[in-house]
Protein backbone atom coordinates (compact mmCIF):
# COMPACT_ATOMS: atom_id res chain seq x y z
CA UNK A 1 0.00 0.00 0.00
CA UNK A 2 2.88 2.33 0.80
CA UNK A 3 4.45 1.67 -2.61
CA UNK A 4 1.11 2.33 -4.32
CA UNK A 5 0.81 5.76 -2.63
CA UNK A 6 4.40 6.59 -3.62
CA UNK A 7 3.70 5.62 -7.24
CA UNK A 8 0.44 7.61 -7.23
CA UNK A 9 2.09 10.74 -5.80
CA UNK A 10 5.01 10.42 -8.23
CA UNK A 11 2.66 10.07 -11.18
CA UNK A 12 0.68 13.12 -10.03
CA UNK A 13 3.83 15.23 -9.65
CA UNK A 14 5.15 14.15 -13.03
CA UNK A 15 1.81 14.98 -14.68
CA UNK A 16 1.67 18.37 -12.96
CA UNK A 17 5.21 19.16 -14.09
CA UNK A 18 4.37 18.19 -17.68
CA UNK A 19 1.29 20.42 -17.72
CA UNK A 20 3.08 23.41 -16.18
CA UNK A 21 6.14 23.14 -18.46
CA UNK A 22 4.01 22.74 -21.60
CA UNK A 23 2.17 25.98 -20.86
CA UNK A 24 5.26 28.15 -21.20
CA UNK A 25 4.26 31.42 -22.79
CA UNK A 26 6.52 32.64 -25.54
CA UNK A 27 8.18 36.01 -24.80
CA UNK A 28 8.48 38.70 -27.47
CA UNK A 29 11.27 38.49 -30.04
CA UNK A 30 12.00 42.11 -30.98
CA UNK A 31 14.60 43.81 -33.18
CA UNK A 32 15.43 47.50 -32.66
CA UNK A 33 17.40 49.35 -35.27
CA UNK A 34 18.81 52.75 -34.36
CA UNK A 35 19.75 55.07 -37.22
CA UNK A 36 22.29 57.84 -36.60
CA UNK A 37 24.17 60.27 -38.78
CA UNK A 38 27.96 60.53 -38.83
CA UNK A 39 27.81 63.02 -35.91
CA UNK A 40 25.87 60.52 -33.76
CA UNK A 41 22.52 62.32 -34.03
CA UNK A 42 19.33 60.28 -34.34
CA UNK A 43 17.82 60.31 -37.85
CA UNK A 44 14.02 60.39 -37.88
CA UNK A 45 11.76 59.51 -40.82
CA UNK A 46 14.41 57.17 -42.19
CA UNK A 47 13.28 54.07 -44.10
CA UNK A 48 14.73 50.86 -42.63
CA UNK A 49 14.62 47.54 -44.47
CA UNK A 50 15.57 44.32 -42.70
CA UNK A 51 16.22 41.46 -45.10
CA UNK A 52 17.91 38.11 -45.63
CA UNK A 53 20.23 37.06 -48.41
CA UNK A 54 19.49 33.43 -49.28
CA UNK A 55 22.49 31.14 -49.55
CA UNK A 56 21.21 30.04 -52.97
CA UNK A 57 19.31 32.01 -55.58
CA UNK A 58 15.80 31.09 -54.39
CA UNK A 59 13.36 31.42 -57.30
CA UNK A 60 15.46 34.17 -58.87
CA UNK A 61 15.44 36.40 -55.79
CA UNK A 62 18.62 38.07 -54.58
CA UNK A 63 17.10 39.02 -51.21
CA UNK A 64 14.08 38.22 -49.09
CA UNK A 65 12.62 41.30 -47.37
CA UNK A 66 11.37 40.41 -43.91
CA UNK A 67 10.35 43.84 -42.66
CA UNK A 68 10.47 47.52 -43.40
CA UNK A 69 9.62 50.53 -41.32
CA UNK A 70 10.35 54.17 -40.64
CA UNK A 71 12.34 55.52 -37.70
CA UNK A 72 10.62 57.57 -35.02
CA UNK A 73 11.87 60.88 -33.59
CA UNK A 74 14.50 58.98 -31.58
CA UNK A 75 15.88 57.37 -34.78
CA UNK A 76 14.50 53.98 -33.78
CA UNK A 77 12.65 51.40 -35.90
CA UNK A 78 11.12 48.44 -34.05
CA UNK A 79 10.33 45.07 -35.63
CA UNK A 80 8.45 42.17 -34.06
CA UNK A 81 9.59 38.64 -34.98
CA UNK A 82 7.19 36.63 -32.80
CA UNK A 83 5.76 34.91 -35.90
CA UNK A 84 9.21 33.90 -37.15
CA UNK A 85 10.38 32.41 -33.83
CA UNK A 86 8.98 29.10 -32.56
CA UNK A 87 9.45 27.80 -28.99
CA UNK A 88 12.46 25.50 -28.74
CA UNK A 89 14.20 27.07 -31.71
CA UNK A 90 17.83 28.05 -31.08
CA UNK A 91 18.37 31.52 -32.52
CA UNK A 92 16.14 33.25 -35.02
CA UNK A 93 18.11 34.93 -37.80
CA UNK A 94 21.05 37.07 -38.82
CA UNK A 95 19.71 39.77 -41.11
CA UNK A 96 21.09 42.60 -43.19
CA UNK A 97 19.86 46.18 -42.76
CA UNK A 98 19.54 49.05 -45.24
CA UNK A 99 18.60 52.52 -44.03
CA UNK A 100 18.03 55.58 -46.20
CA UNK A 101 16.51 59.05 -46.21
CA UNK A 102 17.03 61.56 -49.01
CA UNK A 103 20.75 61.36 -49.85
CA UNK A 104 21.66 59.55 -46.60
CA UNK A 105 22.36 55.82 -46.82
CA UNK A 106 23.81 53.15 -44.55
CA UNK A 107 23.97 49.40 -44.08
CA UNK A 108 24.31 47.10 -41.10
CA UNK A 109 23.61 43.67 -39.71
CA UNK A 110 21.59 42.37 -36.77
CA UNK A 111 21.50 39.01 -35.03
CA UNK A 112 18.00 38.36 -33.75
CA UNK A 113 17.94 36.18 -30.65
CA UNK A 114 14.92 34.31 -29.37
CA UNK A 115 12.62 35.85 -26.76
CA UNK A 116 14.69 39.00 -26.29
CA UNK A 117 15.20 42.48 -27.73
CA UNK A 118 18.13 42.55 -30.15
CA UNK A 119 19.60 45.93 -31.12
CA UNK A 120 21.77 47.31 -33.89
CA UNK A 121 22.87 50.79 -34.94
CA UNK A 122 23.27 51.90 -38.55
CA UNK A 123 25.24 55.03 -39.46
CA UNK A 124 23.93 56.84 -42.52
CA UNK A 125 26.17 59.17 -44.54
Which helices and strands occur, and which strands form pairs?
Layout lengths: L1 H21 L7 E8 L9 E6 L11 E7 L5 E5 L12 E9 L2 E9 L4 E8 L1
Summarize the structure in words.
- The chain has one helix and seven strands.
- With 125 residues, it is an alpha+beta fold.
- The chain has a single domain (26-124), classed as Carboxypeptidase-like, regulatory domain (Immunoglobulin-like, Sandwich).
- The protein has a four-stranded antiparallel β-sheet, with no helix packed on it.
- Strand 5 (93-101) and strand 6 form a beta hairpin.
- It is elongated.
- The mean pLDDT is 82.
Q: What characteristics describe this protein?
A:
125 residues, three-stranded mixed beta sheet, 1 helix, 7 strands, 17% helix
Total helices: the number is: 1
From the 3D coordinates, which CATH architecture would you assign? Sandwich
Q: Quick check: average pLDDT?
A: 82
Computed CA radius of gyration, to the nearest angstrom = 22 Å
